[in-house]
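Worked example

This section walks through a single chain of length 201. The input is the sequence exactly as stored; nothing has been trimmed or padded.
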Amino acid sequence: MGDDPSVSALVARVRDGDQGAWDELIERYSPLVWSICQRYQLSRQDIDDVGQSVWLLLVENIGSLREAAALPGWLATTTRREVLRVLRVASRHDHADLPPDGQLPRDPDAPTIEEELIAAERNAALRAAFAELQPSCHDLLSLLVADPPLAYAEISFRLGIPVGSIGPTRARCLDRLRRSPHLAGLLADGATHAGVKETRR
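Given that input, the structure is written out below as C-alpha cells.
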C-alpha cells in the first residue's frame, strides 16, 4: 500500500489545487476516519468534530508529507490523535487513564485498524476502476450485484440484451476491470480476488 501510485497521483492533484481531487480524497478516506472514531464509541457530534479537524490538518500538512503514498497511514494516525483530543476535552475518561498529550492511546484493536486501512484502499481502487468502465459494462455489473438479486430475464429486459449474452459480456467486463491500472498493485498482492468473486455472484 505504501507505494500505491494512485494515492501519489491523487495527492499531487490536491497539491496543485484540484478541487475535484480534494472531493475524491475525502470520499475515498472518510470511511477510514469514521471507522476509527466508531472504535472509540464517539457520539455523532464528536465524530463530526474529529473529521473536520482531520481534514483541516490535512489541508495544512499535505504539502509537507514526505511520502505522498503514505497518506492513508497519516490519516489513520491523525484520526486517532484527534480522537484522544476529543476524549480529553469531553472528560469522558479519567485523565489518569489517558496517555500524555501527543501520544496515541493504547489500542488493542490496532491490527483491525490496519485491516480497515487496507480495505479502504482496496474499495477505493475498485470504485476508481469501476468508474472507468464503459457505460454498458458499468450498467451490467451494477445490475448483477443488485440487492435483492435480479433474474437474468429482468437484466435482459432492462438492458435490452439477450439473456445468453449476459455471461460472456460479464466475463469481458470483469477482464477489463482486472486490467485497470487502479488495481495493478492490489492484483499483484492478490488482494482483489475476493472483490472480483463478489462481483461474479
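What to look for: The chain is about 70% helix and 0% strand.
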